[in-house]
Amino acid sequence: MSDASRERGPAGGETTKGGGISRVRAWLRGDERPPGPFRPEFWRSPLRGPWLTSVFGLVLLAGIPIVALTGLVSYAAYDPRLPGNDITPEKGLLGFYLFDWPTDPVWLYRLTQGVHVILGLTLVPVLLAKLWSVIPKLFAWPPARSPAELLERASLLLLVGGAVFQFTTGILNIQLLYVFPFSFYPAHLYGAWLFMVALVAHVVFKLPRAITALRSRDFRQELRTGLRDTCPEPPDRERLVPVAPARPTVSRRGLLAFVGGGSLTMFGLSVGQTLDGPLRGTALLAPHGRAYGPGPNDFQVNKTASSVGVREAETGPGWRLTLTGPRPVRLSRADLLALPLHTYPLPIACVEGWSTEQEWTGVRLADLAGLAGAADGSGVFVRSLQRGGAFSHASLSARQVADPRSLLALRVNGADLSLDHGFPARIIVPNAPGVHNTKWVRELDFRSFS
């Protein structure tokens, strides 16, 4: 029996007796579909079908694993196993893959996190198109006709929910809109694993059908088909093809061009935040694509001194750096400038995807560890003058301390650090996430993390 005849029959539709309760019972029994999007006639786009959905799915299948892998690598870079690093705490079973993050090559985190963020943004139009193409499936009624279909629907809901959660929280974090009622880092990690499990299950269910659908139409021929010759795909078991299609207002070629153009636009308006020079100004979709004033300190700032409660008086002549270890030491900025100074070009790369390379001058952390009498193989716990916000402290591993390019930086590009860039002193470590390059340092506590 067709949906239309069922609606007109004695079991429901316009002739159902007994009011709303009887109608709801009919819906629950599956005798009648609820109105609106639960009825096939509601979805009328002649473009929807297995082939178009499979094209979008293939692009996502190529891109999302890269986004996921680079995201997991990023979490390893935070080294949450280090004692005292309660910013990204130990994750138990989910931390099985963590490894000692290297300091070489210095650009590795800049690359992996840049790819994670920029590719994720680039895939947003494709993801939205994919969700649009399968939205009738989300309203299929009854929800399941068999245990296998119930499992498939559950994996679909988990996949869609996971995708929406991961992309939404990631984009809000990129924009520095910390509106979450939870900690972004563990939530994003847990969400990533749930999403990947759902994605694997979905691929297992759908890949054979997707391959069949992709082979059903010639891609090049579809790109040559204009609006006049655009017609619906044949009826399908997935129930994506509309039962009452409307006349097309755009061809599949036009839709693919629109989605592809949207992805290129997202890429072009965000990639500049990972590049130095004038291209940074093209990152209109990123909060770090602007200028920060003339001079050597013109590069990205995540948080200003005023926003985290660092007062200029605290960073003046009375500021002292405390070295905690077997031989505690207190040093003024003049004392630090009198020590052997070293200069290295090193990048800063942040979880939001922005990165920049600058030339830093300062005292090696290894030399400061020696002054404090720290044993070989000691890490360091860094404390800041910062009062508000996250990341007022960080743990650095013994490998990071021992690297000769790891500095307590006093200058950048030949000039003193500005207050917003961490004056009087900040950490700069090769290949470390930006939040571990602590600004406004007040104490270096050298300790064994074994």
Whole-number average pLDDT?
A: 87
- Structural domain count: 2
Instruction: Return the string of H and E elements.
Output: HHHHHHHHEEHEEHEEHEEEE
From the spread of the alpha carbons, the general shape counts as elongated
What is the helix fraction of residues, given as a range? 25-40%
Task: Let me know the number of strands.
Answer: 10
State the end-to-end CA separation: 71 Å
Largest sheet: 5 strands, mixed
What is the tally of helical segments? Answer: 11
Rounded radius of gyration (Å): 28 Å
Assess the beta-strand content as a share of residues.
5-15%
Q: Runs with pLDDT <50, length 5+? A: 1-18
Give the class from helix and strand content and strand pairing. alpha+beta
**Strands of the largest sheet, in order across it?**
2-1-10-5-6
Organism: Streptosporangium oxazolinicum
Protein name: Molybdopterin-dependent oxidoreductase
Transmembrane segments: 51-78, 115-135, 156-178, 190-207
Domain Oxidoreductase molybdopterin-binding: 318-447
